[in-house]
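User: Hey, my collaborator sent me this sequence without any context and asked if I could get a structure. I don't really work with proteins. Can you help?
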Amino acid sequence: MTKASARASDEVPFHFEELFFSRTDGAGIILAGNSVFTRVSGYDWDNMVRKPHKLIRHPDMPRAVFWLLWSTIKRGEPIGAYVKNLAKDGRHYWVFAIVTPIGDHYLSVRLKPSSGLFAAVQKEYEALRDWERREDPAPADSAARLLARLKELGFPDYTSFMSDALAAEVAARNTVLGRSQDRSLSIFSDLLASAKALLTRADVISQAYSRCAYVPLNFQVQAAHLGDAGVSIGEITKNYNDISAEINRSMIRFIASAHDVLGTISTGQFLLGTARIQREVQELFEQELREGRSGEGVEAGEISNLKSVRQQSQKRAAEGLLRIGRQAAQFREDCGEMKRLVAALEVTRVMSKVEVARLDLANSALNELIEDLDDLQKSVGSGLRDIDLLNDAIGGHTSHLLRLEKRAA
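Assistant: No problem. I've predicted the 3D structure and written it out in structure-token form, which is a compact way to encode the shape of the chain:
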């Protein structure tokens, strides 16, 4: 191994208690940062200020990540990502970066990652970058491939991934530093578990309904075979068709509500974790200024920028908690509507069973269809009972979080 390749394989050391930040303009030109940033990157401030942030971009980084990053922050939304950076001397360093829009600028805070998820991400990045080098896809196509892979790993979207990643890194960092875990973030973890379970139950109900989608048509076919004797069965079939259409409309709202709850909780967890890291960066930078370690050209006015993004994250996290409460209430209404439809379905099943017995058709295909309706009713009923419990848990966790954050404000 040559000296140059050996250096490229080396990692720049920095400590878990260290955090660094930088601020860029809308084009990614560096305007400010702290001493940790300059030390770890290897550039003194004069060689970094007014330079593009891609000065430290490592060739091992998938283009997909930067495409997602820029498309997100240009929408005015914050984003978190694992990033491998290139130091001036050819060495590298990994960070979990949180980039937040602030006016027409962007402020990024970074921490040292160490979670189990980080280890998995390094392998995923390597595979994705190899594919990019072979196929030379458009960045958007590479981003689509990354999102598809995250879905395979259990993350429905990038928001869910970055939220879980930040929570994992904050928890891992607290462990390394011997700190107690953040109570609010722990409750958010419980919230997410309940929301994911809720979505799973909702999907189970949807699948059970889909399996019985053939029942109305088969009822119609069987009623037609019975001639005049099947008129009553035909009326019952019409009733079932009406209920089925309502269930279908309700199911669409039902699944959408479940996804909304999960998305809002993921966003809230990310924003709360972001606010925690931003607060610590601000405190470290204030200490740096007091001790005169900030370096020439770095102004104390950056404190106001750090404070502004932190307050913005805290505010949006609090708004998210209130939104979760509203969504849980809406979901409870959706559950009530589904219960009403399930009760109507049960009435239809009983009517069908009575009519089949009256026509002495116990051994006919109609009886099998009635059994299918019975299975559907039981599956949906059981799922809704589970969802009620999960929804109550979400409401309880949300109320607890609101109390904790109100005391901490």
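In plain terms: Residues 1-181 form a domain with the Beta-Lactamase fold (CATH 3.30.450.20). You can pass these tokens on to your collaborator as they are.
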